[in-house]
Amino acid sequence: MTRIYIIRHAEAEGNLYRRIHGWYDSRITENGKRQIAALEHRFQSIHIDAAYASDLRRTQTTAQAVVRPKGLELHIEPDLREIGMGIYEDKTFGDLAYHDPKGQRLFVTCSPQWDPQGGETFAQVAQRVTTAVFRIARAHPDQTVAVFSHGTAIRCLLSSLRGKHPHETPELGHCENTGVSCLETDGERVSVLFENDASHLPEEIATMARQKRAMSTGSFPLVCWFRPLDMDREAQIYFEARKDAWQDIHGSLQNFDGPGFLAEARGQWDADRRAVECVMLRDQVIGVLQMATLRDADQGVGYVPFVYLKPDFRRRGIGVQLIGEAVCAYRALGRDRLRLRCAPDNHLAQRFYKRYGFVRIGQAPGSRVPLDLLEKEI
């Protein structure tokens, strides 16, 4: 009899930034690192003979909770990876909901009709993950194995083992980050001892527990999408955003250089049409994200001159999605750090950036007013 623990990866960027990360190789968040520590504590007294993970970074990082303290080799099994999302990879959930609401419904309901270009169906995922788990079981007769995989992949596996049709998969619910299921196999026979148990996580670091609290209080993050801002036709949107941000931070418009800000943004936009983006909630412009994509490229830095949300949309879980957009945009350009400026007396913004991994590296040179220079590894 072989015992297999099936473990979902810790909280990753897709969970935090509200982005679609199937085969996209995202990183573990700061909160995810705390979840990994809790998972390590859970497995302290559990004997494990072997450990397997998908070929994606987020499962391999999570697997360190078991392999590092127990001195195990981590075996990489590509068939354990998440569902392939094809043309939707690294788009925001807001983008999918706005541009393809039918596709969103098919995905959420695990419909057999879900078959994105370049991606996978739920049946295909169930087949490859189930095959991989049985292959691992055969390689470890009468042993105990830890297998690290992904949310949708694990749902498809458990659904398949229970003999359910793919469209019945949503009945199983979502597995919490670092949630643990346990199987016992004997040949081709398998029994599920328990599933999706995250009792090792304190509520304050459990991803889904936080989401449920947010839903109960009506503060669940609104999901946005991004589009280029046209500096020929929409420069006033940018100007008003800069003006409002200056007034909010400094209490007046003293030293506000609107024409200078516009000229800077236009120069960056002329060089790269993605440099200035509108933050969209359905059809509504609710903010602006500016990226100076050519600046500091020789240092491997992605520079962000301006991050802005309209007042009504602050403190609603949207701000981190702007950070996620910048992270993914600059990572695609080969940058390994994100850099921005923040007023030292803007305590709300300072706490926000610190929460998501930014550290102060100095004072910004040549700024109109004193500004801290903050940086985050990506």
Features of this protein?
single chain; elongated; alpha/beta; Aminopeptidase; Rossmann fold; 12 helices; 7-stranded mixed beta sheet; 2 domains; 6-stranded mixed beta sheet; 378 residues
Summarize the structure in words.
- This protein is of the alpha/beta class.
- The chain folds into two domains: 2-216, Phosphoglycerate mutase-like (Rossmann fold, 3-Layer(aba) Sandwich); 225-377, Gcn5-related N-acetyltransferase (GNAT) (Aminopeptidase, 3-Layer(aba) Sandwich), CATH 3.40.630.30.
- It contains twelve helices and 13 strands.
- The chain has helices spanning 13-17, 30-42, 57-70, 93-99, 101-108, 122-139, 151-161, 207-216, 235-250, 258-271, 319-332, 347-355; strands at residues 2-8, 50-53, 74-76, 144-149, 180-186, 189-197, 225-228, 276-281, 284-292, 301-309, 337-342, 359-363, 372-377.
- It has a seven-stranded mixed β-sheet with strand order 7-8-9-10-11-13-12, with helices on both faces. Strands 3-2-4-1-5-6 form a six-stranded mixed β-sheet.
- Helix 2 runs parallel beside helix 3, helix 4 (93-99) packs across helix 5 and helix 6 packs across helix 7.
- The chain is elongated and about 75 Å long.
